[in-house]
Design a protein that fits this description.
By secondary structure, the protein is of the alpha+beta class. 39% of the residues lie in helices and 15% in strands. Among the domains are: 100 residues, Hypothetical protein, domain 2 (Endonuclease III, domain 1, Orthogonal Bundle); 120 residues, Nucleoside Triphosphate Pyrophosphohydrolase, CATH 3.90.79. Strands 1, 2, 3, 4, 5, 6, 7 and 8 form an eight-stranded mixed beta sheet that branches. A hairpin with a 4-residue loop joins strand 6 and strand 7. It binds a DNA duplex through helix 2, helix 3, helix 6, helix 8 and helix 9. It catalyses: Hydrolyzes free adenine bases from 7,8-dihydro-8-oxoguanine:adenine mismatched double-stranded DNA, leaving an apurinic site.
DNA sequence: AATTCGGGGAG
DNA sequence: CTCCCAGAATT
């Protein structure tokens, strides 16, 4: 097979040829393209699958066939028609923006990027989509499909969700935009991304760009694109007690394996409030001591790991008696020697609380 | 740059 | 169950 290089190459004709054969017949693609229709479709399609949008779109144009009709509607009625489609700000913004078009632009959807971008709910992508599809302007419309396709074709192994990569891909799209056919190209990318260059398992065997796709040629089409999301880490409440006996703190060495292995910490247990304090008291009883724990926390601290977050509630406590079982995992640490042990995560910083 | 905002279908 | 989808607004 001949491997073609993608840099500097104009491949939009190949995609347009594919589009001519495989273009989806969608209700908002009636000719001539109406700016209002394109607008409604683009808003509904934000983060929403085509099949979910289809019935809503048809109903919408039935209930609000024109911008005049939509502008005249009550907000509750507008929201009612959107009910079930999700992201309800889209409906509120669309309603407000259409009203603005009626009053401020004489009922004509603005034809410049600058003006159309001021309308509520119309961001970078939607502005480009409306201007290119409805008005035939040479504008890019970079959405999730485009980011995925370009990341693969150009072999971009970086986070497509970062603004930097988005900007770079936008430049690549602009360089590829066929003059006078930007709208068609943008729609071709949508269909291509929905039918061939799909997220998980792309259909490379039928792809018209396979010979020039860097990801495919490297056998990495399933590894791209890369999307790094901040998955919310679980929060773990822990109760920490700083126990003093004369000039020393009672500290504990963590297990030799696992999180913060073998590092030293103040006595602590999962949980918070009275239950947490009671759990610490019992823990120390097992070790051989009776302790009294203050009823009010000394401080709270949060510490973020890659996979979890500790929310620490720190109490002061006093050693009331007993003998510490001999062993290597507990010891009394002279206060002035606090820098001599390796502290587990945030525990070292707690020494500042009771200096 | 990170969060929030819905709902549904695919894997 | 997780991921992802024709994103935008807010912080």
């Amino acid at each position: 097979m001949v491997i073609e290089t993608i840099n500097e190459r104009q491949w939009s004709p190949r995609l347009l040829a594919w589009f001519a054969q495989h273009r989806r017949d969608l209700p908002w693609r009636t000719e001539p393209r109406d700016p209002y229709h394109v607008w409604v479709a683009e808003i509904m399609l934000q983060q929403t699958k085509v099949e979910a949008v289809r019935p809503y779109y048809e109903n919408w144009l039935h209930v609000f066939p024109t911008m005049e009709a939509l502008a005249a509607a009550e907000p509750d009625e507008v929201l009612r028609q959107w009910q079930g489609l999700g992201y309800y700000s889209r409906a509120r913004n669309l309603h407000a923006a259409v009203r603005e078009v009626m009053t401020k632009y004489g009922g004509t959807v603005p034809q410049t990027a600058k003006e159309i971008r001021t309308l509520k709910g119309i961001g970078e992508y939607t502005a480009g989509a409306i201007l290119s599809i409805a008005y035939g302007q040479d504008e890019t419309a970079v959405d999730g499909n485009v980011l995925r396709i370009f990341a693969r074709v150009y072999g971009i192994a970086r986070n497509i969700l970062s603004s930097r990569v988005k900007k770079e891909i936008t430049q690549l799209v602009a360089a590829q935009l066929p003059t006078g056919k930007a709208g068609m190209f943008n729609e071709a990318l949508m269909d291509f991304g929905a039918m061939v260059c799909i997220p998980k398992t792309p259909h490379c065997e039928v792809c018209p760009l396979m010979t020039m796709c860097r990801a495919y040629c490297a056998g990495r089409e399933k590894e791209l694109p890369i999307r790094v999301t901040r998955k919310k880490v679980p929060v773990e409440n822990r109760t920490v007690v700083m126990i003093r006996k004369q000039g020393a703190w009672l500290i504990h060495r963590r297990p030799p394996t696992g999180l913060l292995a073998s590092m030293w910490e103040f006595p602590n247990v999962p949980g918070k409030g009275p239950d947490g304090r009671e759990a610490v008291r019992q823990l120390l009883a097992q070790v051989g001591g009776q302790v009294a724990i203050e009823s009010h926390p000394l401080a709270t601290r949060e510490h973020v790991f890659s996979h979890k977050k500790w929310r620490l509630t720190i109490y002061a406590g006093t050693w009331c008696g007993g003998t510490l079982l001999s062993g290597k995992e507990w010891q009394w640490l002279p206060i002035r020697a606090y820098t001599t042990v390796p502290w587990a995560g945030p525990h070292g910083k707690l020494t500042a609380l009771e200096a």
